[in-house]
Amino acid sequence: MTEDQVLLGLALIVVLATGSQVVAHVLRVPALIVLLPVGFTAGTLTDTVNPQALLGDAFSPLVSLAVAVILYDAGLGLDLSRLRGHTRRVVVRLIWIGALVTCVSAALVAAPLLGLSHGAAVMLGAIIVVSGPTVVGPLLGFVRPTERIQRILVWEGTLIDAVGGVLGALVFHAVMAGEHRGVASGLGQFLMSTAVGVAGGVAGAALLVTALRRLRLGEVLGTTVQLAVVVGVAAVCDLARDDAGLIAAILMGLAVANLPGLDEAVRRPFFETLVNLVIGLLFISISATVTPQSLRHVLLPTLGLVAVLVLVTRPVVAALSTLGTDVPAGERCFLAWMAPRGIVAAATASTFSAALVDKGVGGAARILPATFVVIVATVTLYGLSAVPVARRLGVVRPARSRPLLVGGDPWVVDLGRALRSVGLDVVMWAAREAQRDSIRAAGIELAEGEFMAAATGAGAEAEGLTGVLLLTGEDDFNALAAMNLEGSVEGTVYRLGASVENQGMIAAPSLQGRVLFAPELTASELARRHAGGARVVTRRVEGPLEAGARLLFLVRDDGRLLPVTRTGGPSPRPGDIAVLLTA
User: Fold this and answer.
1) pLDDT in the model for residue 202
2) DSSP 568
């Protein structure tokens, strides 16, 4: 390709990846549903969007390193304190039982349906073992299932990616060697790859913890160091054993997320912008390598394989994994109806299929298009059906608001009591120990740990939050926290307006629509009025509000909390509950 073609091709991939994610955001559908057909169409209509021609031999290594970065980011969201009891037992079973049953059943079905040789069928079975956090996470964001279900599926999706990647590498080398290795030999190879990944993960984690804890690099440089360490360690591990870098990446993410003494701002976001872009680039690039001709003879047989995976294999895996646990029937059924395939399956198929074709393995040319169909079919099926299925099974979290109130002044605790009295599941966080004691004494749930962990759901107590109310007496903290949390939490972030003397120093025009209450109701004024005898009370709306009271919030009959802001407020309706500040 000419230099101009390379430039145009790379630019198109970036634009298509970003544009597809924007379209998915507007349509409120998982991005993968848009990315895959867009990449396939671009690869079909033009020769320019051809990553193998654009990058040559560098394409496969870059895919491996990109997947390692994605899995490191996924590891950052895994809190070991949440994985205990029956939840841990279910996750462990889903991984080893799921990998075994899925690989065997897929290979047995794929061989006759797709006309694959035994080696190609086992290779395909090993590839589609994985699920993936890049697919499961967005789907669960739409569904909002119960906390335990979300926890189990996120852990499974993250860990099975590494296991599936290593399993795929082992099967690939066995097929390439043209020999039938014994069980003991295969297990030994798997354990060796695991050992390399664990060693790399420990070394990388030690390096990251040392750099982030002792050097205090800040968010920008800290993020850069994380990227460098993850890429470097993953590359070294992959050089030693194929796909061992995936295990190392997840272990490094787990270490940074769970070891104490690290700067939360450095470890939590891990440049979400870069990770989202990498995901988009990978899906566009890999799907562009699939041609209509390659799909012609595999589409219908692969849909038959998908039917077996969805209707037989996954239910069997879920039943065996939850056997003898306290997981309710509805949650067991939802686990049986959630196993989409994602980026690691696509990356593994793209990496291994070409080499197997060159080796002359029978049916190897059908591995990549079959994997493509499995990904599209499972993501579309689960993406369109997950919400109604979850509602039918009764495993959706209630729509009732669960706000996090940040602050511990007496009037804020009074507000927490009032919201709790009308049935809201209130969580509070405060920095000072005396304020925290007041929150505990009021019987309100207290979010432990660092502020960012509590607000973003990194702490178990804060899981399922629907919004954040920044109500401290420190105007600069409220403004900075609002900007840091924007886009990082589920729901809306609201803050108190700055007092008159601080308004010139705090400029956050993009957040003015989320400033709470009337201009005069600043933190200092609310504290003064409360000290003077004003109280936060609740009244059911049956007519005009009482004279002299200031409306702060409305609670609808379905439990939604609607605040009054500088730009206006909700209109009271009969049956609503008004949260008022008395005169």
Assistant:
1) 92
2) B
